[in-house]
Q: What sequence folds into this?
């Protein structure tokens, strides 16, 4: 395995070399470093870079996600995290990881169970990756960890999974905060995810002054805002319109489940509201986020375009046209459906930075952040 090296910015677009990002008047950008594990297409990276963070190491093994990541950030992520020697990872202030959620997500668990496969931590291949994070934490001792996962993590396996995760982090001497946050306050999508923020007790003490962010004030984002042409939903490539066959199938499927008293079915989106959660399987039928067409929504609906999917997830600064996403539609939907919303990362991390900056001001050495 080649030694894990600091990511080189060579070839990077200068997208992020513009003015430093000022989120709040009083704080300004803080020159912290972070690592991006299970990076996907860099939702954590975008959110942390907006706050002045500098990424020093990335790992993501999916070759299509790597392509997208490379296009946006100019760096090819390191591959399988199991093949990387933790000691080779550069020092960093924040470890960020949206570790694979499939072993814990409702859809992932029922699929694995129906196939007689183990789920959660018993899933050798993916469930144990949480413990890989713990090994890296043990070796590198980053002051702060920000982890993200599906909401179901807390209820998984009759609520037995979450206490294991929490106690492992506490055993490593971190103080653990967790909150389920709905991204709908930042982007027009109902997307609940658990955010786990951990502070090294040896640096921050037993009660760091951390609170999760409040939803931003002002008007809520509307789904209409992410449409390529908000005045004309039809102003997109016709390939995004559902075929007559698929539309009939979705309607029949929904009717069948309704008759049984189930809520399953497609999600026809209210343009002045928020959509359902975009999932990694959106490429299959687009059923969870459909866009109504025609007078009174009578025409066959359409799916999100790739640019709309990017904007529904909050990836605004890297995607303004289809060519900005270097993979097929199928791969692109998978990537956005798996991603974390950068705006939520930004909101959570700006609260983390307040704690870090407060500590910096109080610290005797005057410097908390690792070089
Ligand atoms: C839930 S997604 C994280 C998405 C990311 N937060 C984003 O914003 O795009 C988990 C990612 O972990 C990657 N992954 C899974 N196992 C891995 C491994 N052993 N080494 C590196 N990456 C892995 C998957 O390919 C997937 O992209």
A:
């Amino acid at each position: 395995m080649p030694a894990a090296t600091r990511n080189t910015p060579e070839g990077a677009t200068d997208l992020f070399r513009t003015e430093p990002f000022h989120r709040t008047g009083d704080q300004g950008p803080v020159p912290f470093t972070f690592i991006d594990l299970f990076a996907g297409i860099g939702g954590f990276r975008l959110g942390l870079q907006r706050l002045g963070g500098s990424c020093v190491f990335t790992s993501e093994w999916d070759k299509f996600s790597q392509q997208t990541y490379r296009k946006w950030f100019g760096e090819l992520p390191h591959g399988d995290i199991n093949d990387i020697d933790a000691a080779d990872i550069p020092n960093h202030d924040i470890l960020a990881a949206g570790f694979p959620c499939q072993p814990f997500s409702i859809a992932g668990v029922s699929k694995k169970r129906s196939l007689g496969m183990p789920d959660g931590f018993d899933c050798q291949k993916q469930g144990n990756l949480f413990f890989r994070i713990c090994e890296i934490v043990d070796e590198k001792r980053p002051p702060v960890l920000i982890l993200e996962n599906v909401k179901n993590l807390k209820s998984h396996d009759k609520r037995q999974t979450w206490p294991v995760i929490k106690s492992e982090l506490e055993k490593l001497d971190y103080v653990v905060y967790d909150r389920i946050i709905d991204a709908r306050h930042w982007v027009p999508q109902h997307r609940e995810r658990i955010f786990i923020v951990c502070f090294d007790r040896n640096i921050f003490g037993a009660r760091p002054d951390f609170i999760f962010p409040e939803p931003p004030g002002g008007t809520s984002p509307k789904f209409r805002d992410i449409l390529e042409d908000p005045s004309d939903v039809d102003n997109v490539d016709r390939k995004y319109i559902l075929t007559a066959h698929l539309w009939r199938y979705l309607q029949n499927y929904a009717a069948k489940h309704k008759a049984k008293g189930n809520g399953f079915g497609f999600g026809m989106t209210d343009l002045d509201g928020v959509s359902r959660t975009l999932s990694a399987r959106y490429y299959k039928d687009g059923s969870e986020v459909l866009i109504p067409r025609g007078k009174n929504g009578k025409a066959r609906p359409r799916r999100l375009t790739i640019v709309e999917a990017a904007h529904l997830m909050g990836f605004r600064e890297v995607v303004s046209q289809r060519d900005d996403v270097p993979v097929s539609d199928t791969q692109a939907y998978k990537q956005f459906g798996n991603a974390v919303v950068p705006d939520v990362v930004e909101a959570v991390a700006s609260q983390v930075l307040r704690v870090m900056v407060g500590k910096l001001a109080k610290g005797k050495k005057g410097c908390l952040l690792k070089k």
